[in-house]
């Protein structure tokens, strides 16, 4: 079915001059945030500057996510809003997973888009920009075997004490609801040395906590500097040896790649924070089979039991999809039972949305929206209850927090506990990036209040 082309009044003229300023707008997951940061760094290395907030930019990059329904339609709405009051427009690039999925269709529907570039090709942005300045549209949705990371600049100094580091991309799991294997490609692991080099650059630039990212981050494999085979837990141990790195986190992981070595690392590596995001998606084995998850509710719970055995204070997080095709009330109640048994510190939950080209989109017994809505409300109510309970149980504890950003009030700062809880604390003499000890005084559903514990003079 042919979809409508954007109206001509949106197809505004633009200058053919090389852009001097830019803005990158990222949507979706942490990996998109990472990719957006790398685009900013790359464009900066080309001599361009980020446009100030509220100012027009010569180049706008929409770094898109394709996980949710109508993601592509939202992109076209954003493109339309880029038309300026004087009738002109910036150079427009659509990047990310929508660009990979839609390809040349984006340029057909929105001729004002100058560049379409997939998530495995954004290192070619400078070449694509040069092509546009010569009066051409530019399309690059290749998935080359050569690593895009080799073409990206060295990480500059960060403006915050936490940083993302992508170590693995793509997915070989082929869950029936998911577009990632088609938009990000097959699973690939970055080399050990490249990861360690980027981590060192982040640390040298002021980062104290690194979150390792991947579509299946715990599927990472490689060889260390001595040529010895390593799994993900070995990489974590290697990163933990970096002296100025204080904390390590990771996401998103898959139950099938939760190895004994990784479980042991949660007990043995002090810098690995006691937080595990391990999506399960459903508590019903029949739905998990239809999703092609290749684990059961029982095997998932067995993994959590092992993790809790070695790290009793672990905070657990997960992902859930409600309303998957064929989900009965009994299936949903199995999900609710699993949530009640695990009692997550936090979790993400979504209504199923069919993604074009995925097997689930063509399955029979699609669930009515009103049924999905009702189930999602029940699930989120249970998750929220458990989250409040987890935060409330923390009151009275004395914990270290890493200060990440300024608070709303003078002298107030916001930091994270080891369990990824946000804490507001008045600490006027402390700087962002400091690790301070606080006593947790009160808890809300999304954050806690703490009081600074003054260190006694020696």
Question: What would you note in describing this structure?
Answer:
The chain is α/β, with parallel strands linked by helices and 458 residues long. It has three domains: 8-140, Methylthiotransferase, N-terminal domain (Rossmann fold, 3-Layer(aba) Sandwich), CATH 3.40.50.12160; 148-394, pyruvate-formate lyase- activating enzyme (Alpha-Beta Horseshoe), CATH 3.80.30.20; 398-452, Beta Barrel (OB fold (Dihydrolipoamide Acetyltransferase, E2P)), CATH 2.40.50. 31% of the residues lie in helices and 22% in strands. It contains 13 helices and 21 strands. The protein has helices spanning 30-45, 71-81, 97-102, 104-109, 125-133, 180-183, 192-204, 232-240, 260-268, 285-291, 297-310, 329-342, 369-394, and strands at 21-26, 49-50, 59-64, 91-96, 115-117, 138-140, 162-166, 168-169, 188-189, 209-213, 221-223, 229-231, 247-251, 275-277, 315-322, 346-351, 398-406, 412-416, 422-426, 435-443, 447-452. The strands form six sheets. Strands 2-1-3-4-5-6 form a six-stranded parallel β-sheet, sandwiched between helices. The protein has a five-stranded mixed beta barrel with strand order 17-18-19-21-20. Strand 11 (221-223) and strand 12 form a beta hairpin. Helix 8 (232-240) runs parallel beside helix 9 and helix 12 (329-342) runs parallel beside helix 13 (369-394). It is globular, with a radius of gyration of 23 Å. Mean pLDDT is 91; it is low at 1-10.
């Amino acid at each position: 079915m042919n979809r409508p082309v954007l109206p001509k009044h949106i197809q505004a003229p633009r200058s053919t001059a090389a852009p001097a300023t830019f803005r990158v707008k990222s949507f979706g997951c942490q990996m998109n945030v990472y990719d957006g940061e790398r685009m900013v760094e790359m464009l900066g290395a080309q001599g361009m500057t980020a446009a100030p907030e509220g100012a027009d930019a010569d180049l706008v990059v929409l770094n898109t996510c394709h996980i949710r329904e109508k993601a592509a339609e939202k992109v076209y709405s954003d493109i339309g809003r880029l038309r300026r009051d004087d009738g002109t427009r910036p150079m427009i690039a659509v990047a990310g997973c929508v660009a990979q999925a839609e390809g040349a269709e984006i340029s057909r529907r929105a001729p004002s888009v100058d560049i379409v570039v997939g998530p495995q090709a954004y290192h070619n942005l400078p070449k694509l920009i040069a092509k546009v300045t010569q009066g051409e549209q530019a399309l690059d949705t290749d998935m080359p075997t050569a690593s895009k990371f080799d073409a990206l600049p060295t990480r500059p100094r960060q403006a915050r004490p936490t940083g993302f580091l992508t170590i693995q991309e793509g997915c070989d799991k082929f869950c029936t609801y998911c577009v990632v294997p088609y938009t990000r490609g097959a699973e690939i692991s970055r080399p050990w040395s490249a990861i360690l080099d980027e981590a060192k650059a982040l640390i040298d630039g002021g980062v104290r906590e690194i979150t390792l990212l991947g579509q299946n981050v715990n599927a990472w494999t490689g060889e260390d500097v001595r040529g010895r085979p390593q799994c993900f837990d070995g990489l974590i141990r290697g990163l933990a040896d970096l002296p100025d790195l204080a904390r390590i986190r990771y996401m998103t992981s898959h139950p099938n790649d939760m190895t004994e070595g990784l479980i042991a690392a949660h007990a043995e590596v002090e810098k690995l924070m006691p937080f595990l995001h391990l999506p399960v998606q459903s508590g019903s084995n029949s739905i998990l089979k239809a999703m092609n998850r290749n684990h059961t509710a029982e095997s998932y719970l067995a993994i959590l039991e092992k993790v809790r055995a070695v790290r009793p204070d672990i905070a657990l997080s997960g992902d859930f999809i409600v309303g998957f095709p064929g989900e009965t009330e009994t299936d949903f109640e199995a999900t609710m039972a699993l949530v009640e048994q695990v009692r997550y510190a936090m979790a993400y939950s979504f209504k199923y949305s069919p993604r074009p080209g995925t097997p689930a989109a063509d399955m029979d017994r699609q669930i009515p929206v009103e049924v999905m809505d009702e189930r999602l409300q029940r699930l989120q109510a249970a998750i929220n209850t458990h989250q409040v309970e987890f935060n409330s149980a923390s009151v009275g504890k004395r914990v270290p927090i890493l200060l990440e950003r300024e608070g709303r009030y003078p002298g107030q700062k916001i930091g994270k506990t080891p369990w990824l809880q946000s804490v507001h604390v008045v600490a006027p003499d402390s700087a962002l990036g400091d690790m301070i000890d606080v006593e947790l005084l009160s808890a809300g559903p999304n954050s806690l209040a703490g009081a600074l514990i003054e260190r006694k003079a020696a």
